[in-house]
Amino acid sequence: MSPRRMAFGAVAVLLVALTACSGGPVTEPTPFSPTPAQPTPTRTPFETTPRSPIAPTGEPVAVPPARWDAIVADLAERGVTSTPELVSAHAVTWNNGALGCPSPGVSYTQALVDGMRIVVEVDGTIYDYRFGTTNTPKLCTR
To answer: Which end of the chain has fewer surrounding CB within 10 Å, N or C?
Structure first.
């Protein structure tokens, strides 16, 4: 008997032995057999955090003139002509570049950002402004 036939015979015997140890023949599902039940997900689907009023955080601070001027200019661009009244100003370290006010579908820098939260009131309307490291305001609308 040739070595090639001996090797083929050994493989055949090994396959028969493995099939006998497997507890029965392996069958492929037929188109008419029911599919196994899908496992129930164990984690909740991704959800965004809704915007909600945030109580002042951080240390109260004085508003730098450049940031106050930026708020007044932004309000003017929005058609608000009355003089804003300061409600609160706090130093805040934001968790990321969204400055605590993310917009759906927007990616932000994922790093701590030192900045400020300045809340003003004009004619009974509250405006919540956020600043990062620059003097460019971000109006957080709810």
So the answer is: N
Distance separating alpha carbons of residues 56 and 89, to the nearest angstrom? 8
User: pTM for the full model?
Assistant: 0.60
Burial class (CB in 10 A: 0-12, 13-18, 19+), 135: middle
Provide the 8-state DSSP code for 49. Answer: P
User: What one-character DSSP code corresponds to residue 69?
Assistant: H
Q: What is the CA radius of gyration of the chain?
A: 33
In angstroms, the CA 114 to CA 134 distance is: 10
Instruction: Give first-to-last CA distance, the chain, whole Å.
Output: 85
pLDDT tens for the chain, residues 1 to 142: 666 666 666 666 555 555 555 555 555 655 655 566 666 666 655 555 444 445 556 789 999 999 999 999 999 999 999 999 999 999 999 999 999 999 999 999 999 999 999 999 999 999 999 999 999 999 998 6
